Amino acid sequence: MKIEHKIILSNVVNVALIMLIGFFAIQNLNLMLTKLRFVEIADDLNASFLEMRLSEKNYFLYKDESALFGIKEKIEKTMQSVEAVNDDISRAVGEDNLRQLFLHLNNYSRILDQVRRSSGDVQLETKLREEGKQLKEFSEAMTLLERNQVNDIIARSKKGLFYSFWAILLSAIVVSHFISQRILRSLREIQRLAISISEGSFSTIEHIPSRDEFGSVITAINFMSEELKNREEEIIQSKKLASLGVLTAGVAHELINPLNNISMIAQTYDEAYDSLSNEQRIEFMNKVERETERIKEIVKNLLDFSKPKEVDLREANINIVIQKSLKLLQNMLDISNVETKFTFEENPPSVFIDEHQFQQVLVNLITNAAHAMPGGGRLFLGTRAARQKDTIEVSVIDTGKGIPPEHLAHIFDPFFSTKGEGGTGLGLSVSYGIIKHHGGTIRVESKVGVGTTFTIELPVYKKKEEQNGSL
């Protein structure tokens, strides 16, 4: 179910609960108002009945015939008043009680008429007193009953509204918590995946937590992660090929030197062949072989660097890897008037790396350092073992123009370059991903006009027996 539908459903449930409670509250309120209306009428009736009883006493005490006429008028007015609000009284006390009220009034009126016709009849007078007493007691009992019922309705309504309020509040909290947790769980998965992708680890979410909008987003991010993973090797390879352009001049110069030497050896050997001893001829051939091996090594390094390869993690000596990488760039550094200095850890612990990929990182960092020192400068390469963390650090330090502070935060972002149109903006981003894949970190420090320091930190390689021994 989509989030929109979940929210709509929760709102419909809450609104339905509120409407249901409102309906019962209105029903109770209407009933209470009806009974209050009857209580008001009953108070007026009781007042009339009290006046009748007083008139009745006046008649019995003073034999005042006019008192009987007064009672008769009050009975008629009372009956008219009751008939006028017949529906209200019927809803309040019910048809049976209403009939009982009319019955008492009619009996009282009938006995009153008999008393008027037969003045002095003691039995009728006694009946009149009894009926008047019953009428008043019946009216007072109904009034008291209705007052109690009004109080009960108020108490029930108060209790019902109290429990209903907490029921709605609890329902809203439970539904909101349920929906928010579903949303937050999906957001956490998206956040985790986004961070993983930003760090160069193109993982995916295997089990999509929901089939709502977030599920669609996660599916899209999974697809993007898969695409990035598939294209990563292509990006690395394209960066390697781009770097070949930088290496071409240096490699060409490196090849010319041994070729010139071979040419001069061949010319000398041809001219002096007859005067050379057998040992001298062998020495000439050995020189040719050494120069040929030199050419083969240059070509081999270039081919190894340029051709695409599967990730091949192996135990390696970091100092040797740095020296191999430097061979590819030494001529470029010489032409750029860059002095190279080394500070290597003696007998460094082994690392577990893809040598060709790590070489790509070093070539990129060293090339960037040379570009940052167009007028020449010094390049420091060093390794240092951090025993307490079981890591080894590789430092590439130049004395170039430095990186402005506002650019440092974006230096590893794809397509971000400080070289303008001269850079692709992929080199450091690809390097960052390679180091992350190796379980390491790469950081940069720079000061404008002083230079830049790149520090790579790689975990030390532990053999299986060492790992088992540390458990």
Give a short synopsis of this structure.
This protein has two domains: 3-179, A middle domain of Talin 1 (Up-down Bundle), CATH 1.20.1420; 313-471, Histidine kinase-like ATPase, C-terminal domain (Heat Shock Protein 90, 2-Layer Sandwich), CATH 3.30.565.10. It is built from twelve helices and seven strands.
Structure, described:
The chain is an alpha+beta fold. It folds into two domains: 3-179, Up-down Bundle (A middle domain of Talin 1), CATH 1.20.1420; 313-471, Histidine kinase-like ATPase, C-terminal domain (Heat Shock Protein 90, 2-Layer Sandwich), CATH 3.30.565. 71% of the residues lie in helices and 10% in strands. It contains twelve helices and seven strands. The strands form two sheets. Strands 2-4-5-7-6 form a five-stranded mixed sheet, covered by helices on one side. Strands 1-3 form a two-stranded antiparallel ribbon. Strand 6 and strand 7 form a beta hairpin. The two termini are 47 Å apart. The model is unreliable at 467-471 (pLDDT under 50).
